[in-house]
Specification:
single chain, two-stranded antiparallel sheet, 21% strand, 7 helices, Rossmann fold, alpha/beta, 178 residues, six-stranded parallel sheet, 38% helix, globular
């Protein structure tokens, strides 16, 4: 594991990778989500010595991250769009960010972010992927069964498609909380 407790498993001390500082990217579908629900995680990782990069579409909260000493990168990403061209652009844009940043760990939040982030991470060979999915997302509020199939049926399979092969060495953790 890249970040692991030292000795007595104290949550206040972590070792990092051989290069000295672990780089962790946190990706969500809005900067509001990162600020309101993942800010404490980002600050705790930073306090433990990790370099933290936040990725989301631009919003009103992006400037607050800099005031807290956190780096934020914008990504063009539409939460509810099913346009295939927009989706390919989103995965390509995220893969470009991952390739430039070369993170040790990526942590994705929400279903769409987990799927697209995992694809981008696989394309750029990120060593550790964590996916946290809380609730049912926008699929729970849809009336169309075809949208339920598209939105709720394929994410879990897409997140870890490569991990099903016998020779795979990837580490993907998906946490679903409903």
């Amino acid at each position: 594991m890249l970040l692991k407790p030292i000795g007595d498993r104290s949550p206040n001390s972590l070792t990092v990778s051989k290069k000295g500082t672990a780089k962790v990217i946190l990706f969500a579908n809005t900067d509001w989500y990162l600020y309101n629900f993942r800010l404490s995680l980002a600050l705790a990782l930073k306090q433990l010595g990790a370099e933290v990069v936040l990725v989301s579409p631009a919003g009103a909260y992006r400037e607050r991250f800099a005031l807290l000493g956190l780096r934020w990168r914008p990504l063009t990403f539409t939460r509810r769009s099913l346009n295939p061209i927009d989706q390919v652009r989103a995965v390509a844009g995220l893969a470009r960010i991952y390739a430039e940043e070369k993170p040790d760990v990526v942590h994705h939040f929400t279903i769409k972010s987990a799927v697209y982030g995992s694809l981008a991470a696989r394309l750029t060979r990120v060593p550790t992927i964590v996916n946290s999915i809380a609730g049912l997302g926008s699929a729970a509020g849809q009336n169309s069964t075809s949208e339920h199939g598209v939105r709720a049926g394929w994410p879990s399979r897409a997140c870890d498609w490569r991990c099903r092969t016998p020779t795979s060495s990837c580490r993907t953790l998906t946490i679903a909380i409903s």
